[in-house]
């Protein structure tokens, strides 16, 4: 009788702790902090030295075909919307998907040229990123670097 009680208690403890362990592991991905912050002000620097800021908004993707941890990054001033995923870590033989602070995004655009960006998240902010512009509109092409800080006013 006593061993059944101990076994039952251990089983309940295990069942209760598994979701906590899973959440702790998921918190190592790039999206968790960014989605918590929601809105960030991003400072960009162009190759020619020019600078500007834009507000970015982060949302979860709730669409068939996407995975938990995939997210949308939208720049409100331009309307540019990027579909993003945390990069995989590990190797091609033993990958660990969505288990990295780095992310990569492709513009969700209807024209034939899409911009791409990548970055590294640190908690609720984009610590560093790079933006590669397509060539559909002037100025043609180019690379920008950026970083972002949470900003509820964006």
Explained architecture:
- The protein has helices at 2-26, 31-37; strands at residues 39-46, 51-60, 71-75, 80-86, 89-90, 95-96, 102-107, 116-122, 125-132, 143-150.
- It is α+β, with helices and mostly antiparallel strands and 154 residues long.
- The strands form two sheets. It has an eight-stranded antiparallel barrel. Strands 5-6 form a two-stranded antiparallel sheet.
- Strand 3 (71-75) and strand 4 form a beta hairpin.
- The termini are far apart.
Output the CATH class name: Mainly Beta
The arrangement of helices and strands along the chain is HHEEEEEEEEEE
Report the count of strand segments. Answer: 10
Mean pLDDT, rounded to whole units? 75
User: Can you tell me the CATH topology?
Assistant: Lipocalin
Q: How many structurally independent domains? A: 1
Q: Helix fraction?
A: 10-25%
Report the span from N to C terminus: 61 Å
The strands making up the biggest β-sheet line up spatially as 1-2-3-4-7-8-9-10
Strand content of the residues, in percent? 35-45%
Radius of gyration equals 20 Å
Unreliably modeled segments: 1-27
The gross shape turns out to be: globular
Oligomer: single chain
CATH architecture: Beta Barrel
- Specify the structural class: alpha+beta
The biggest sheet amounts to: 8 strands, antiparallel, barrel
Count of alpha/pi helices: 2
Supply database-style keywords.
154 residues; alpha+beta; Lipocalin; eight-stranded antiparallel barrel; 2 helices; 41% strand; globular; disordered N terminus
